[in-house]
């Protein structure tokens, strides 16, 4: 428990005071913010759109069993196969069995945070299977030997110079290569992988209950090619990804595009309803969907926090969060980062090890304000903190500190006890380590507000 928390504090300290890191992430997020303002212009009433989306997602979460059964029934009718995975271990085992059945040697993957969650690439590597990320950002992260930095833009932490240097080392590309040069190089390189892959793996932006379909939205076409060329298509999706009807996409796709990348709509939007039929020439021969629980039902049990399962993974709360903008994505040491990650990770990864994430917030409320499905994120962080205290796992020193503060705060005579110098000395002794070496501890006033009030109102 303490090792994970200590690592978080250490990494946060390093990243927050690294000027190059802050320069890069703030530049990239500023570009995002400009795009979002443009994308939002398509909504005549954005609050109404958010309210409608929130209602639909909340309805699904509160009736999840019903929609899962409906989705399974319709997808199976379409010729697809459903695999229910209770945890990451089950999901990986089932996917490896499919790979073994089809003697797969090469797999192409579209961007998917759910596959990051189950660490499928690591499993493929152990089995000697070549797994290639085909999203440009994910591909860069993969060859760099890193984890995605951001839910939507995995390589947000790198500048174009950083990426050019990486490609120079890995592929002997010109060290002064432009983003266009690198994109062209990757496109040519990946085209061969698509046409020779045995299996294509994607995530799902939405699972459509009434048609039994997978909705996939992207900008590069790599997702569509990961589905079209390989004979086998595997979708890995969390059980919370459902929406009621295909007609709901006219609301969710523009919202996801606007809040995710600042577009009116993303370039490629696909609805995949199963493997190809007898009279069809394109598409996979077999299609599987791995529906992943992985402790999502633990979150579902929470009367208030279950609303966090409404998240559509747009990443808007990350870009709005002042904490994320300083410490970056890797510091969280979880797949889901920023405010949404701080709410759900303690339940998906264990409150004991990850409770500290719920405290890594300024509680400014910007995340709640920006969320397109109206998840009250900053309030849920407070609920998480309360749960942590109720579990009784709070260290003894913290309990004693809070007990002492309560005693002092409830008695004016205790608060006024001692001279001005003694009070400041005591404060410095108690808080200096917690306050940190980079900030000056503020001095208590010579007279408290209570004393000044009495003097000025007599």
Top keywords for this entry?
single chain; 458 residues; alpha/beta; Rossmann fold; six-stranded parallel beta sheet; four-stranded mixed beta sheet; globular
Give your account of this protein's structure.
The chain is an alpha/beta fold. Among the domains are: 66-294, Rossmann fold; 396-456, no CATH class. The protein has 23 helices and ten strands. It has helices at residues 2-16, 19-39, 46-62, 64-77, 88-101, 113-118, 120-126, 136-144, 160-171, 179-196, 222-228, 249-260, 296-300, 316-320, 324-327, 338-348, 351-354, 366-370, 377-390, 396-409, 412-415, 420-435, 449-456; strands spanning 81-85, 106-109, 130-133, 199-202, 206-208, 213-218, 232-238, 242-243, 268-272, 286-292. The chain has a six-stranded parallel β-sheet, with helices on both faces. Strands 8-5-6-9 form a four-stranded mixed β-sheet. Strand 5 (206-208) and strand 6 form a beta hairpin. Helix 2 (19-39) runs antiparallel to helix 12 (249-260) and helix 16 (338-348) runs parallel beside helix 19. The longest helix is centred in the first third of the chain and has 21 residues, at 19-39. The mean pLDDT is 93.
Topology (SSEs and partners):
Elements: H1 2-16, H2 19-39, H3 46-62, H4 64-77, E1 81-85, H5 88-101, E2 106-109, H6 113-118, H7 120-126, E3 130-133, H8 136-144, H9 160-171, H10 179-196, E4 199-202, E5 206-208, E6 213-218, H11 222-228, E7 232-238, E8 242-243, H12 249-260, E9 268-272, E10 286-292, H13 296-300, H14 316-320, H15 324-327, H16 338-348, H17 351-354, H18 366-370, H19 377-390, H20 396-409, H21 412-415, H22 420-435, H23 449-456
Parallel strand pairs: 1-10, 2-3, 2-4, 4-7, 5-8, 7-10
Antiparallel strand pairs: 5-6, 6-9
Helix pairs in contact: 2-12, 16-19
